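Troubleshooting: if your tokenizer reports a length mismatch, compare your output against this known-good record of 276 residues.
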Amino acid sequence: MATRIHYFCAAIFAVLVACGSSERLYDVVGVVEELRPEDNQIIIAHEDIPGLMPAMTMNFDLEDPRVIDGLVEGDAIRFKLVFTGRAYLIRSVEPLGEAETQERKERGELSRPADPVPDFELVDHRGADFSSQDARGRILLIDFIYTHCPGPCPILTGVDVEIQKLLDDLGDRVLFCAISLDPERDTPEALARYAEARGATASNWHFLTGPPEEVADVVRRFGVSSQPAEDGELDHMVARFLVDPSGRIEERYMGLTHTAEAIAADIRRLAQRKGS
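Known-good structure output:
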């Protein structure tokens, strides 16, 4: 990560000790890259979090939306990060002043509800071509992962597997699509291993990859920022998009706090409304 903050030598973490609690609490330093109160999100370029994830830039959920009041982009911050096992939540934020001058990361406009889904034509984990046109007439849940991801991607896929099981009676009227952010390493074979390891084996799953320049164009048109970090990992957004049978985005889910039950309920309502 290009940004390094010198207020602290390293991020220090502590385990939250509470009877029966599986939460872990970390003390982290970083720089505010973007504030997204409409999504209850903040994007932070953070230092290494020992025992949790390497230094990277990603979006985090807010435990209370008021914790970002008064912050501006470019602020250096120290923040309490709670990892629940299913989500990363920012509990509190302490401003540390303006960060050192840093190179801003360019991000496209994130696709929104009512936008047409960006067209794509890629290759799935079975080696078969799959395009956005193949999903017409069916409901599509799209997210973005990579198989070497050290943090949010396995959680994201795990929740999607739960959603698929909750909607098993709908069969292939609902499609699940995960687009790789790392097509150079994520071959169809690598994606197949990732899918098998996480139980994403139903026929309505498509883990997608393709030539790097084509995948990068698709990711850019969705507005899901993804850039290489210094340690070989990827800075990226955590986002899902629910697409209706006509090819328009119905819902956008940022971060990891959306439960499988809530998303499955949205999909059922959409299926009933559209007669999918």
